[in-house]
Amino acid sequence: MNWYLTVLKKYAQFSGRSRRSEIWWFILFNIIVTIVLSIIDNVTGTTNASGYGILGTIYALAVLLPSIAVGVRRLHDTGKTGWWILIGLVPFVGWIVLIVFYCIDSEPGTNQYGPNPKGVG
């Protein structure tokens, strides 16, 4: 839960670096919340004809900017520019590339985006 709140506190902070655990815990928590909201939307009947629920849509819009920001900070941690996040717009291949980038270990020491968030040099 702490990693999720850390990402929300840095709501639109695109500078700096983020550890692997920060992004993966954030993604896991988002998946859990999305499933719960989807169930609530289905039970209460607040889904539209295409199957999208009101609560899920509101939540997705609320975490859109923090999701992009933590992704950019994670790319910075691996020494890549944040613009690489746009490769996620390419279906399937782009997502795989981003997952690989998110799994790569931090660049040791300080890089052009800031000090190592692990605190090791």
TrEMBL record:
Key word Zinc-finger present: no
Q: What Pfam families does its record include? A: DUF805 (PF05656)
Which top-level group of life is the source organism from?
Answer: Bacteria
TM segment ranges: 23-40, 52-71, 83-102
| GO cellular component, as recorded | plasma membrane
InterPro entries according to UniProt: DUF805
* Keywords (A to Z) from UniProt: Membrane, Transmembrane, Transmembrane helix
Q: What is this protein called?
A: DUF805 domain-containing protein
What is the species listed in this Swiss-Prot or TrEMBL entry?
Marinihelvus fidelis
